[in-house]
Write a structure and sequence with these properties.
It is built from 13 helices and 21 strands. By secondary structure, it is α+β, with helices and mostly antiparallel strands. The chain has three domains: 60 residues, Ubiquitin-like (UB roll) (Roll); 172 residues, Threonyl-tRNA Synthetase, Chain A, domain 2, CATH 3.30.980; 135 residues, 2-Layer Sandwich (BirA Bifunctional Protein, domain 2). The strands form seven sheets. Strands 6, 7, 8, 12 and 13 form a five-stranded antiparallel beta sheet that branches. Strand 18 and strand 19 form a beta hairpin. It is globular, with a radius of gyration of 27 Å. The two termini are 53 Å apart.
């Protein structure tokens, strides 16, 4: 028997038979680890337990304590839900079913909205599928085989057509259900023990309002009933503190469907709170050397073409035409989704010396963005809102201290409200 050596996370090596799988590696390390294994990582890439290891690869075993574990579990739960829907609604068309933060969803086209009774029936069928301990098995198809396998699924056909020609098309099967999927998944359906379907919402296919409206079922999954119960309790408590609910109860703000989705009406009490917050942060901006500007809410489309918004952000903007006078063609204008062009024009209005720099500009500017109706969420995701923007013009030598100053400002503001946060670097 030919043996190969693989590396373990602690730097040690382990000899296994050629052709061994991640599951075999877990068993070679110990019986308890093999029993707890969910998936694996080969040189940092997530794979299922049936994946064959190669000589020299670093093998890490994923258990329910691993950071990736819940994501894998929830992805598997989405597949279990899809199988339940297939069994109960054989004519259903399937979209996508990813894991998301704290849960999962799957999009279905069934010709009508799901009722609460439908959801309960799906949940019950999921329990049956889970009790059968059906293994998740991976397969690979070429493009023609994939199209044949999903010939009655137009949404899947669309996804297959968009894959690169040289991409390996992988599928996962459990029981009666097969889906396009990169994986990995838990070993079998019995791992999806603690779950709950939480809500149903409409969702346009691929977020395009010109495409079919699908039914999206959301759910959550955990490794224990205790964790599930704790999560549901947190959600219940959070709903009691939902800012939309408090806004109504405290007479702070309201929304009116006749005016449009995502547009906030601040009542006297809410307006006072908003002004106090703005004055508070305005004073801190002044203390830190910022000067305030106010720029128009609309600009000619040419400005947005110059800034790049017209080409790359147009679908999220509101455009209209203004009659500039008799005999003149109408001129296209855009309502600003961001304050950047205004600050640049203020800066460019005069010749600047290096002695004028850094020039720190503040604008509490109202902006408008065409957010999809399905994603607007109270004050957190609105179509019209005030954005506290800062634009800093400086020399190359001043970049480092200016960035440090901005980060200090952010930390000051977040700390004032007791918020914890993470920071990520973006170059665009």
């Amino acid at each position: 028997m030919v043996e190969i050596a693989v590396k373990l996370p602690d730097g040690s090596e382990l000899s296994v038979a050629e052709g061994a799988t991640v599951r075999d590696v877990a068993a070679a390390i110990g019986a308890r680890l093999a029993q707890a294994a969910i998936a694996g990582k080969l040189d940092g890439t997530l794979v299922d337990l049936g994946h064959v290891v190669n000589a020299g690869q670093t093998v890490e075993i994923v258990t329910d304590r691993s950071p990736e574990a819940l994501h894998i579990l929830r992805h598997s739960a989405a597949h279990v839900m899809a199988e339940a829907v297939k069994q109960l609604h054989p004519m259903a068309k399937f979209g996508i079913g990813p894991a998301i933060e704290d849960g999962f969803y799957y999009d279905f086209e069934v010709g009508r909205p799901f009722t609460p009774e439908d959801v309960e029936a799906i949940q019950e069928r999921m329990r049956q599928i889970i009790s059968e301990s059906l293994p998740f098995t991976r397969g690979e198809l070429d493009r023609l085989e994939a199209h044949d396998a999903f010939e009655e699924q137009p949404l899947k056909q669309e996804l297959i057509s968009e894959l690169p020609e040289d991409e390996v098309i992988s599928v996962y099967t459990q029981g009666t259900f097969t889906d396009l999927c990169r994986g990995p998944h838990v070993p079998d359906t019995s791992w999806v023990k603690a779950f709950k379907l939480t809500k149903v919402a409409g969702a346009y296919w691929r977020g395009d309002s010109d495409r079919p409206m699908l039914q999206r079922i959301y759910g959550t999954a955990w490794f224990s009933d205790k964790d599930l119960a704790a999560y549901l309790t947190r959600i219940e408590e959070a709903e009691k503190r939902d800012h939309r609910k408090l806004g109504r109860e405290l007479d702070l703000f309201s929304f009116h469907s006749e005016a449009g989705a995502g547009l906030v009406f601040y009542h006297p009490k809410g307006a006072r709170v908003l002004r106090l917050l703005q004055d508070w942060e305005r004073a801190e901006h002044y203390r830190r050397g910022y000067a305030e500007i106010i720029t128009p809410h609309i600009f000619k489309a040419d400005i947005w073409k110059t800034s790049g918004h017209y080409d790359f952000y147009r679908e999220n903007m509101y455009f209209f035409e203004i009659d500039e006078g008799e005999g003149q063609p109408p001129v296209e204008y855009g309502v600003k989704p961001m304050n950047c062009p205004g600050a640049v024009m203020v800066y460019a209005n005069d010749v600047r010396s290096y002695r004028d720099l850094p020039m720190r500009l503040l604008e509490l500017g109202t902006v408008y963005r065409h957010e999809k109706s399905g994603v607007v969420h109270g004050l957190m995701r609105a179509r019209g809102f005030t954005q506290d923007d800062a634009h800093i013009f400086c020399t190359a030598e001043q970049v480092k201290p200016e960035v440090a100053g901005v980060l200090d400002f952010v930390d000051w503001a977040m700390s004032a409200f007791g918020f914890s946060y993470t920071a990520e670097v973006s170059t665009r």
